[in-house]
Design a protein that fits this description.
It comes from Paraburkholderia atlantica. It holds the Pfam family 2OG-FeII_Oxy_3. The protein is of the alpha+beta class. It contains 6 helices and 19 strands. Helix content is 24%, strand content 27%. Strands 2-3-4-15-11-19-9-8-5 form a 9-stranded antiparallel β-sheet. A 4-stranded antiparallel β-sheet has the order 10-17-13-14, with no helix packed on it. It has a two-stranded parallel ribbon with strand order 1-16. Strand 2 and strand 3 form a beta hairpin. The longest helix has 16 residues.
Length: 286
Amino acid sequence: MRVVDAAWQEWLSSNVARGCTPGSMVDAMVQAGFADGEARVAVHHAFDRRASGPAAPATVADPATNPYRYDAAPVARGNLIHAADREVRVLLRCERPQLVVFADVLSAAECAELIERSRHRLKRSTTVNPLTGREDVIRNRTSEGVWYRRGEDQLIARVERRIASLTNWPLENGEGLQVLHYGTSGEYSPHFDFFAPDQPGSAVHTAQGGQRVATLIIYLNDVADGGETVFPTAGLSVAAQAGGAVYFRYMNGERQLDPSTLHGGAPVLAGDKWIMTKWMRERAYG
C-alpha cells in the first residue's frame, strides 16, 4: 500500500498551486499505485488546505538572506520524452537554475511554416513597463513579433498540446505563443521573464493567471553566428538550432522567484533569428 509521505504531500501542494484538476491528480496517483479511494481523500485534503488561506506573496529570492529553494521541476526525467505526438530528445539539464535543453521539439516543416505565416504579421516587440504595466517599445529589445491566440488553428493547437505534454504543465495555464524575429545585430539585453513583485505595474499582469513560472523558447531556424540565449549568472549559453528549445523554471512551490534565471538574447552576428516563446502561468490564463 502506498503512503502519502512528505514527498507526495509536496507533489500534491505543487499540483494544486499550478492549477491541475482534482481528477487528473487522482488519476496520476492511481497510476502510481494508490487505491482510488485513498487518492481521492488525499487530493480532497490538498485542495482544502489551499482554500483555507491565501497564497504567500511571490518574492525574489536573495542569495544572502533567503536563498532560492530548488524543488522538483515538472519536466519528466529521462533522455527521451514522449510529448503528445512527438519524441523529444534531452540534450542538457542544469540544476541551478532549473534548465533543460531539448532537440526535435518541432519538425523542419513546422519551423518553416511558422516563419512563413508570421512574416506579414510582425510588429515591433514591446516589454512590460514595471511602473505602469504598459507595453512599451524599448531600445534593448530589437525584435519584431506576433502573438497567436491559444488554439488559433490546427498547427498552433498541435504545438500547444505538445508543449503542455513536454513541460508537464496544463495547457490552459499558458499564454499564447509568440513568434519573434531578430535581424542582424538584433538582441535582447539580459532580463527576467517573471513580473517583479515589488513593482506596481506587475499587478496588471498577474491579476489574470497569476505569476509566470517558467519559459520555453523554441528556435525556428539555425543562426550561423551569435543569437544564443545567454544566462549570465549561470555562465551558460544555448545556441539557436532549428527545432530545438530551452526550458527554464523560475518559481518554486513556495512562490520564490529565482534571480539566477536572468537571461538575454545575444546579438545576431550573421543572418537572422526566429524563435517562438511560450510563457507558463500559475493558474488558468485567458
